[in-house]
Amino acid sequence: MGSYSEGIRQAFRETRGMVKDNVTHPSHYEGLKWCGRCKKDLPKKQFAKNRAKPDGLQERCKECRAKHYKDTGYWETSRDNRLKRKYGISLEDYEAMFASQDGCCKICKISDEDLVVDHCHETGIVRGLLCSSCNWGLGNFKDNADLLQAAEEYLLHG
Fold first, then answer.
1. Which of 39, 51, 65, 131 is the most buried (most CB within 10 A)?
2. How crowded is the C-beta side of 108, counted as CA atoms within 13 Å?
3. CATH number for the domain that contains residue 137
């Protein structure tokens, strides 16, 4: 008869299909990692990094994590919370703005599925949705209309 801890390990093997201790699991030595959701040994590059974990990797592979987040609606909830926290608007407000702009950047009019919220950094008022390039451009000009006019003069007259 084996030790108590060996009995625990055996019970765990029977219920979960493996020993969770990465040191004793053979995949640890082969550059593989066990995904607890899909129950497969996968290359370590298929796992996102997580400095809080002993091996520095998430417990589930990227594919399983993405499926979990999609199934639970995590990204939508997270995005809604971020929009409320940063800009004071809901996801429904964002979608209404997106529809009113026909899914196009308010400056360059290029259609883009991933428009970002542009806001005044002094007042916090949301001005509209922009593509990343236009938003970065305004940021680089420090949202200063005089600098933008000077840039326009430069472009027009050299």
1. 131
2. 13
3. 3.40.1800.10
pLDDT at site 19: 45
pLDDT value at 146 more than 90: yes
Give per-residue burial for 66-87: e unless 16+ CB within 10 Å, then b.
Answer: eeeeeeeeeeeeeebeebeeeb
Pair 58, 95 in one domain: no
Question: For the segment 71-87, what is each residue's pLDDT rounded down to a tens digit?
Answer: 887 767 788 888 998 99
Backbone region of residue 36 per phi and psi (left: phi > 0; alpha: psi in -120 to 50; beta: other values): alpha
Which of 72, 101, 123 lies at the terminal end of a domain, its last residue? 72
CA–CA separation, 57 and 53 (whole Å): 6
pTM of the predicted protein model: 0.54
Predicted pLDDT at 17:
47
Strands 32-35 and 116-119: unpaired
Closest CA to 83 of 70, 68, 95, 71: 95
120: pLDDT strictly greater than 80:
yes
State which residues form the domain around 131.
Answer: 90-157
3-state secondary structure of 145: helix
